[in-house]
Amino acid sequence: xxxxxxxxxxxxxxxxxxxxxxxxxxxxxxxxxxxxxxxxxxxxxxxxxxxxxxxxxxxxxxxxxxxxxxxxxxxxxxxxxxxxxxx
Length: 87
Hints:
Elements: H1 3-13, E1 18-19, H2 20-27, H3 31-43, E2 47-49, E3 72-75, H4 77-85
Antiparallel strand pairs: 1-3, 2-3
Protein backbone atom coordinates (compact mmCIF):
# COMPACT_ATOMS: atom_id res chain seq x y z
CA UNK A 1 0.00 0.00 0.00
CA UNK A 2 1.46 3.38 -0.89
CA UNK A 3 0.92 6.67 0.91
CA UNK A 4 -1.84 7.83 -1.45
CA UNK A 5 -3.87 4.76 -0.49
CA UNK A 6 -3.49 5.60 3.19
CA UNK A 7 -4.58 9.19 2.54
CA UNK A 8 -7.65 7.97 0.64
CA UNK A 9 -8.62 5.58 3.46
CA UNK A 10 -8.27 8.34 6.07
CA UNK A 11 -10.21 10.87 3.99
CA UNK A 12 -13.01 8.34 3.51
CA UNK A 13 -13.01 7.68 7.25
CA UNK A 14 -13.32 11.41 7.95
CA UNK A 15 -16.55 11.88 6.02
CA UNK A 16 -17.84 12.00 9.58
CA UNK A 17 -15.50 13.62 12.17
CA UNK A 18 -13.41 11.18 14.19
CA UNK A 19 -10.67 11.38 16.80
CA UNK A 20 -7.48 9.31 16.80
CA UNK A 21 -9.09 6.41 18.67
CA UNK A 22 -12.01 6.43 16.25
CA UNK A 23 -9.66 6.38 13.27
CA UNK A 24 -7.69 3.49 14.76
CA UNK A 25 -10.87 1.47 15.32
CA UNK A 26 -12.29 2.31 11.89
CA UNK A 27 -9.11 1.76 9.87
CA UNK A 28 -7.18 -0.81 11.91
CA UNK A 29 -3.93 0.99 10.99
CA UNK A 30 -0.93 1.49 13.24
CA UNK A 31 -1.35 4.67 15.35
CA UNK A 32 1.99 6.11 14.19
CA UNK A 33 0.93 5.69 10.56
CA UNK A 34 -2.35 7.50 11.24
CA UNK A 35 -0.58 10.31 13.11
CA UNK A 36 1.88 10.72 10.21
CA UNK A 37 -0.92 10.81 7.61
CA UNK A 38 -3.05 13.20 9.70
CA UNK A 39 -0.13 15.62 9.98
CA UNK A 40 0.47 15.59 6.23
CA UNK A 41 -3.22 15.83 5.30
CA UNK A 42 -3.67 18.76 7.68
CA UNK A 43 -0.54 20.54 6.37
CA UNK A 44 -1.85 20.15 2.80
CA UNK A 45 -5.31 21.46 3.73
CA UNK A 46 -7.26 18.24 3.12
CA UNK A 47 -8.46 17.96 6.73
CA UNK A 48 -8.87 20.31 9.69
CA UNK A 49 -9.59 20.04 13.39
CA UNK A 50 -13.32 19.72 13.90
CA UNK A 51 -15.24 22.14 16.06
CA UNK A 52 -18.51 21.49 17.81
CA UNK A 53 -21.04 24.32 17.80
CA UNK A 54 -23.42 22.69 20.27
CA UNK A 55 -23.67 23.76 23.90
CA UNK A 56 -22.51 20.78 25.95
CA UNK A 57 -25.29 21.04 28.52
CA UNK A 58 -27.91 20.73 25.77
CA UNK A 59 -26.20 17.94 23.84
CA UNK A 60 -27.61 14.42 24.08
CA UNK A 61 -24.13 12.98 23.41
CA UNK A 62 -22.33 14.95 26.13
CA UNK A 63 -21.47 11.87 28.21
CA UNK A 64 -19.78 10.07 25.33
CA UNK A 65 -18.49 13.10 23.42
CA UNK A 66 -14.97 12.93 22.04
CA UNK A 67 -14.75 16.66 21.28
CA UNK A 68 -13.97 17.49 24.90
CA UNK A 69 -11.46 14.67 25.31
CA UNK A 70 -9.29 14.84 22.19
CA UNK A 71 -8.83 16.51 18.84
CA UNK A 72 -11.22 15.42 16.14
CA UNK A 73 -10.68 15.99 12.44
CA UNK A 74 -12.99 16.52 9.53
CA UNK A 75 -12.45 16.56 5.80
CA UNK A 76 -12.28 19.98 4.10
CA UNK A 77 -13.74 21.01 0.75
CA UNK A 78 -10.28 20.50 -0.75
CA UNK A 79 -10.19 17.01 0.77
CA UNK A 80 -13.64 16.15 -0.60
CA UNK A 81 -12.56 17.33 -4.06
CA UNK A 82 -9.38 15.23 -3.86
CA UNK A 83 -11.39 12.22 -2.75
CA UNK A 84 -13.99 12.58 -5.49
CA UNK A 85 -11.26 12.87 -8.14
CA UNK A 86 -9.89 9.49 -7.00
CA UNK A 87 -13.18 7.66 -7.46
